[in-house]
Amino acid sequence: MRYWQALVGFVLAIAMLLIPLSAYAASSSSISRSAGKEELSKKDFSGQSLVGAEYTSVNLENANFSNADLRGGVFNGTVLQGANFHGADFSNGIAYLVDFKGADLSDAILTEAMLLRSTFDNVDVTGADFTDAVLDNIQLKKLCAKASGINSHTGVSTRESLGCK
């Protein structure tokens, strides 16, 4: 009996090594709601449900995302200079290599968002909630210098959510 179990285990191990398994991974090219390499500057997305939407290498300068539902959304290599995110929900979102220069993030919810290698020059973060968001230290210091207010939806202080001292 013991010999039989060892033989079956060995055969299964060999079979798993020899039979190729397909790998599945998420990529921007596989998401049907993605926008790529388009000119969308000044476009009005206010109040829209854009859950899981993905924007890669897009110019969204001065776009209006106020009060939009962007939960789980992705901005990758995107220009968002002067964009309006007032009251938007970008929780669990990803912003990688994004230029937020002059953007309005007031009263926005960015909880658990990944905001790596993105820049936040001259951004309004009054009342924004960054609880458990991941930011580069340099950008965190910039945001803490201007952080004030309490988010009207979550009741969390902007300074507290950023961990400002």
TrEMBL record:
InterPro entries in the record: 5peptide_repeat, At2g44920-like
Keywords assigned: Signal
Keyword Signal annotated: yes
Transmembrane as UniProt keyword: no
Annotated signal peptide: 1-25
Name of the protein in its database record: Pentapeptide repeat-containing protein
Lineage of the organism: Bacteria, Bacillati, Cyanobacteriota, Cyanophyceae, Nostocales
